[in-house]
Amino acid sequence: MYRRLALFGLVLSVAGLYALQASQGEQDRPIRLLIITGDHGHDWRATTEFFKKFLPQDLIQVDVTVTPAKDLTVQNLRRYDVLLLNYKDTPRGTPETRWSEANINAFLVAVRSGRGLIAYHHATSALIGHYEFERCIGGGWRGQGYHGPKHQFTVTIVNREHPITKGFPPQFRHEVDELYQNSVMFPENEVLCTAYSDPDRPEGTGKYEPMVWVKRYGRGRVVANMLGHDVQAMQGKGFQTLMIRSIQWAAKRPVTWPVPENLDAPVRE
Predict the structure, then answer these.
(1) Which domains are assigned to the chain?
(2) What does the pLDDT look like over 66-90, one tens digit per residue?
């Protein structure tokens, strides 16, 4: 009997070792990221290409779908660690870009079951009126958001203890961009970054508006980032550092990407 117990203990130890090695192997491989795009009110082609340019290839393996009607299936989405939504349904959409209810359900199932999600900029205005989708991304632009003219503004880090923003300075200057205002916010959202909407500017609210927030949706980690209207707005070190660290966190990986000493964007007239 003692031999059987010893053998059983050995089997458990070996199994645990293999599981640990497999887990370590998963942590060492690049994060598999799928950018979902193909229709948008913004220049999705340019921003998607710029994501592929600045995201570090040794850490993040990028795939792109411009045919979400075909590719948003439960089976296909299982291949990825993180989904990056660079998408807005518009009247210019085609049958290949329009999400069916089955596509929406597959997307929601993927996040609920543990895939990470980055809802980027105007993507929080996608699928307006679909409550469960809006709950997944934590609200955002939805049908009530707006912004004034593009300008350079200061991003304030309101939670410097979260893994994404740990090590950030209290503030950094952000590139010329749209400052989103009046976003819908769900109670469970945890705001990491805000920006002050100057009331002396056109349509300014005089409030600190949420720019980046995180939440959980089932087992999935969700990051909503309102910054980055176009390639110019994506140039700043602050935006890029936030995005890379957000992808690591959403993938349930250690957040290791360093925070540069100077995150301020160059001033442009």
Answers:
(1) 30-144+184-189+210-250 (3.40.50.880)
(2) 999 999 999 999 999 999 999 999 8
Q: Which of these, 86, 178, 177, lies nearest to 137 by C-alpha position?
A: 86
- At 227-238, the pLDDT tens digits run 999 999 999 999
How high is the pLDDT of residue 266?
58
Give residues with Cβ within 8 angstroms of 12, minimum separation 6.
Answer: none
The number of C-alpha atoms within 13 Å of 117 and in the hemisphere containing its C-beta is 32
d(CA 199, CA 194): 15
Phi/psi at 78 (5° precision): -65, -20
Contacting residues for 250 by C-beta, under 8 A, at least 6 apart: 81, 82, 116, 117, 118, 220, 221, 222, 223
What is the b/e burial string over 79-98, where b = at least 16 CB atoms within 10 angstroms of the residue's CB?
Answer: ebbbbbbbbbbeeebeeebe
Q: Are 233 and 227 in contact (CB under 8 A)?
A: yes
For residue 168, give the DSSP letter.
Answer: -
Tokens of 154: 């200061």
Query: How far apart are alpha carbons 53 and 56 in whole angstroms?
Result: 8
pTM confidence score: 0.89
The set of residues, in sequence order, having a beta carbon less than 8 Å from that of 61 and lying 6+ positions away, is: 30, 31, 32, 33
